TrEMBL record:
<feature type="transmembrane region" description="Helical">
    <location>
        <begin position="252"/>
        <end position="281"/>
    </location>
</feature>
<dbReference type="Pfam" id="PF00892">
    <property type="entry name" value="EamA"/>
</dbReference>
<keyword id="KW-0812">Transmembrane</keyword>
<dbReference type="InterPro" id="IPR000620">
    <property type="entry name" value="EamA_dom"/>
</dbReference>
<dbReference type="GO" id="GO:0016020">
    <property type="term" value="C:membrane"/>
</dbReference>
<protein>
    <submittedName>
        <fullName>DMT family transporter</fullName>
    </submittedName>
</protein>
<feature type="transmembrane region" description="Helical">
    <location>
        <begin position="146"/>
        <end position="167"/>
    </location>
</feature>
<feature type="transmembrane region" description="Helical">
    <location>
        <begin position="173"/>
        <end position="192"/>
    </location>
</feature>
<feature type="transmembrane region" description="Helical">
    <location>
        <begin position="119"/>
        <end position="139"/>
    </location>
</feature>
<feature type="transmembrane region" description="Helical">
    <location>
        <begin position="287"/>
        <end position="306"/>
    </location>
</feature>
<feature type="domain" description="EamA">
    <location>
        <begin position="173"/>
        <end position="305"/>
    </location>
</feature>
<feature type="transmembrane region" description="Helical">
    <location>
        <begin position="21"/>
        <end position="47"/>
    </location>
</feature>
<keyword id="KW-1133">Transmembrane helix</keyword>
<feature type="transmembrane region" description="Helical">
    <location>
        <begin position="227"/>
        <end position="245"/>
    </location>
</feature>
<dbReference type="InterPro" id="IPR037185">
    <property type="entry name" value="EmrE-like"/>
</dbReference>
<feature type="transmembrane region" description="Helical">
    <location>
        <begin position="93"/>
        <end position="113"/>
    </location>
</feature>
<keyword id="KW-0472">Membrane</keyword>
């Protein structure tokens, strides 16, 4: 599935994606990690609603409050018997941090400037960018079954947002922000996949999160003026968003990207939309129509079609 390609700005080497000296795991374990990552990231919109701070400040807290956990994870990896040499602050790690900052920045703008349905659907187009650029940037071939699975997931995502999807001139800026979100997150997948060839997931996520937190702190300081939530419920939401959605969700995603291709792994974005709809139904009593349930089924079928095959 992986074909060598000449080095690119995002791809300094072509070692096995598990990382130098990494222990290989069964694809089923890596896939389970992807599903858990989608679950953890899918609940993040609920935490954003409850955070009681501005969207950019909540994005900053999402990353910043996770740094102690990620630091401990990275230290544990460094002390593990047989651990490989520290690759340092490599270019893919730095790029991943910048790309994730861009992803969160444009995602919150999309939420503010367009409908949630439009923002959700457009943001979940990240796998399209992964499929387009996997061969160019990281030397991974995208198979026909992956393209077929992606098509089913896109159709399922459109059904999942249902009749609330709509485009209007006054929401154009927000829709463009949604597209930008998918672009940044798609390239983030490729950067993390490349970084996993030479570094462990905890190291990658901690160092890239430091970069992301610095960028988002500057953005929040310039564009917003309230740093503290209004009550304990807001504090709890910020902590949960950080520990569950970032440390948990992004951490499991970084782990899985060491063992599965970027194109297949990126389909987790559609599971995130599915879980977000489920949490909206459970927590905010948002209706789930038969059409949306059909979209959820199409996403699941698409992922099954795109699944890795032996050999």
């Amino acid at each position: 599935m992986v074909q060598p390609a000449s080095p690119s700005p995002m791809s300094p080497g072509h070692a096995d994606a598990g990382g130098v000296g990494a222990v290989r795991v069964a694809p089923a374990i890596a896939f389970t990690a992807l599903v858990a990552a989608a679950f953890a990231m899918g609940i993040s919109p609920a935490f954003v609603r409850l955070a009681e701070v501005g969207p950019f400040t909540s994005a900053f807290y999402r990353v910043f409050l996770a740094l102690p956990i990620l630091w401990a994870w990275a230290r544990a990896e460094a002390g593990r018997e047989g651990a490989t040499a520290d690759p340092g602050w490599t270019r893919p790690i730095l790029i991943a941090g910048l790309l994730f900052a861009g992803d969160l920045f444009f995602w919150h703008l999309a939420v503010l400037w367009t409908t949630m349905a439009n923002a959700t659907l457009l943001a979940t187009m990240a796998p399209v960018w992964v499929a387009l650029f996997s061969g160019l940037f990281i030397g991974e071939r995208v198979t026909r079954t992956m393209v077929a699975g992606l098509g089913l997931c896109v159709a399922g995502g459109a059904l999942l947002v249902g009749t609330s999807l709509g485009f209007a001139p006054e929401r154009l800026a927000g829709d463009l922000a949604g597209i930008a979100t998918s672009f940044f997150f798609g390239l983030y997948f490729l950067a993390v996949r490349t970084a996993r060839r030479t570094a462990a997931p905890g190291v990658i996520l901690f160092r890239s999160s430091v970069v992301t937190a610095v960028v988002l702190a500057l953005v929040a300081g310039l564009l917003e003026n309230r740093w503290l939530p209004l009550g304990l419920s807001g504090v709890a939401a910020c902590i949960a968003m950080s520990w569950i959605s970032h440390a948990g969700g992004q951490g499991l995603l970084a782990f899985a990207l060491g063992h599965l291709s970027a194109a297949f792994s990126s389909l987790v974005i559609f599971l995130e939309a599915l879980f977000a709809a489920l949490f909206g139904w459970l927590l905010f009593h948002e209706a789930l129509t038969p059409l949306q349930l059909g979209g959820a089924a199409a996403i699941l079928v698409g992922i099954w079609v795109a699944r890795p095959r032996a050999g």
